[in-house]
UniProtKB/TrEMBL annotation:
This is FMN-dependent oxidoreductase (Nitrilotriacetate monooxygenase family). Belongs to the NtaA/SnaA/DszA monooxygenase family. It comes from Curtobacterium luteum. Keywords: Flavoprotein, FMN, Monooxygenase, Oxidoreductase. One of its GO terms (molecular function) is monooxygenase activity. InterPro entries: Diverse_substr_monoxygenases (IPR051260), Luciferase-like_dom (IPR011251), Luciferase-like_sf (IPR036661), NTA_MOA (IPR016215). FMN binds at residues 96, 146, 150, 221. Residues 28-395 form the Luciferase-like domain.
Length: 454
């Protein structure tokens, strides 16, 4: 058996941001079930560990209007995953779920149900929000202070696990005479009182195959990293450059130790794009074409407006960057998008210097700073790079993000996966286990909890 570290791969369904190239001849609906079905079955054919779906609670807006090249429609994640359970057999099904505007019992029940439907293949990606824009869809506005987002998320996860643990594994007993019945003595009432939640009652769903569906986390802030170190089992990270990825891994590893956890209890899977060519030159040319298609003139203007916080609809994207400064005092004209820039003015100054030195137009500059080339090269190069990251401990694998829907994963499965298998770093069967937790090599939380309380 190989002693090499094994690569873990997940597949991110495209269609919820401007990185999806809708002008591609192969592009199909991001709503039709046939798109989800093809994508999921193809990922399963490639022995991917899980399918990953994003979700949003409201469509993003720019100056009060929906930017249709960014995202149009976000169907319910759990409904799609439940449907995919019927057309897949092995692949894990993970959906993004909000801890801010949902309630623990509701989502714990839904995830436990999905875990039953899939025979143990369910997982949830924990995300937070505190803004009134999303809250308005729930008639709750900005009810949660920004500083409390992760306080609520941590208690949300803790309470969910308390609910899942309230049923002992043998609480449902089969009786030959009368059929299946519930042994009430093996179910504990939940009596939880914390800063965010007061819950008293009985969880309605029997213990699912995994006991605890797998918890994924996608925040990158200091608070988000601490939440992941304390509670998550997979991190969907932003860090795809080698040195950056290794620094992130070192940081999270140190945080794990502070929470009494080890590195083998958490997988780090950055989201990574890819472009394949028969030669390095062909791959680079394809990558340039894809990145240009991702940033149309309208998208370039929308991106500028998010940073400048000004109406720049009359700006020439083939000319230089705007000569006005960002308006940092006005209300944001972009709604529903996470802002990663802490200092727009210094960012704009750096962009102007880069555009001048590299002779970049506005659109060219936006392409450079808003899109990622990801892994670009021949299939052999991609397999070697993925292997390098994993063997060095910079990552445990990647969440592969195609640029077309639903066929964007096809070439990766056909041309890169076999090379990873030849290297002895990627599985070639679904025989590792029956549950997502087992296939990811994660600890059995139920067994560990029972041992700790014995």
């Amino acid at each position: 058996m190989s002693t090499k570290r094994q690569v873990h791969l997940a597949a991110h369904f495209p269609g919820v941001n401007n990185t999806t190239v809708w002008s591609d001849d192969r592009a199909e609906s991001q709503i039709a079930f046939s798109s989800f079905e093809h994508f999921a079955k193809n990922a399963e054919r490639g022995f991917f560990h899980f399918l990953f779906l994003a979700e949003g609670l409201r469509l993003r807006e720019q100056k009060g209007r929906i930017h249709d090249l960014d995202v149009v429609g976000r169907p319910n994640t759990l409904a799609i995953l439940a449907a995919l359970a019927g057309v897949t057999e092995h692949i894990g099904l993970v959906g993004t779920l909000q801890t801010t505007f949902n309630e623990p019992l509701e989502l714990a029940k839904q995830l436990a149900t999905l875990d039953h439907l899939t025979d143990g293949r369910a997982g949830g990606n924990v995300v937070t929000s505190s803004d009134a824009f999303h809250g308005a869809n729930f008639r709750r506005g900005g009810f949660l202070d920004h500083a409390d987002r992760y306080t609520r998320a941590a208690e949300f996860i803790e309470l969910s696990r308390e609910l899942w643990d309230s049923w002992e594994p043998d609480a449902v007993v089969a009786d030959p005479a009368s059929g299946t019945y519930v042994d009430r003595s093996r179910i504990r009432d939940v009596d939880h009182h914390g800063p965010q939640f007061d819950v008293t009652g009985t969880f309605p769903v029997p213990r699912s195959p995994q006991g605890h569906p797998v918890i994924v986390q996608a925040g990158d802030s200091d608070e988000g990293r601490d939440l992941a170190a304390a509670h998550a089992e997979v991190i969907f990270s932003l860090h795809t450059e080698f040195d950056d990825a290794r620094a992130f891994s070192d940081d999270v590893t140190a945080r794990l130790a502070r929470h009494g956890r080890s590195r083998d209890e958490l997988l780090i899977l950055p989201g990574a794009t890819f472009t394949i060519g028969d030669t390095a030159e062909e791959a680079q040319e394809r990558s340039r074409a894809i990145r240009r298609a991702q940033v149309s003139p309208a998208t370039a203007i929308a991106f500028l407006e998010q940073v400048w916080n000004r109406d720049l609809s009359g700006h020439d994207v083939d000319g230089p960057l705007p000569d006005v400064e960002p308006d940092v005092d006005a209300d944001a004209i972009t709604r529903g998008r996470v802002r990663h820039l802490r200092d727009p003015r210094s960012t704009v100054a750096a962009w102007r210097a880069r555009a001048a030195s590299d002779h970049l137009s506005t659109r060219d500059l936006v392409i450079e700073v808003s899109t990622r080339g990801g892994f670009v090269g021949t299939p052999e190069h991609l397999a070697a790079e993925i292997d390098r990251f994993v063997q060095a401990g910079a990552t445990d694998g990647f969440v592969v993000v195609p640029h077309t829907n639903p066929h964007g994963l096809d070439e990766f499965v056909d041309r890169v996966v076999p090379l990873l298998q030849e290297r002895g770093v990627y599985r070639d069967s679904h025989d590792e286990g029956t549950t997502l937790r087992q296939n990811l090599g994660l600890p059995d939380r139920v067994r560990d909890r029972q041992a700790a309380t014995a």
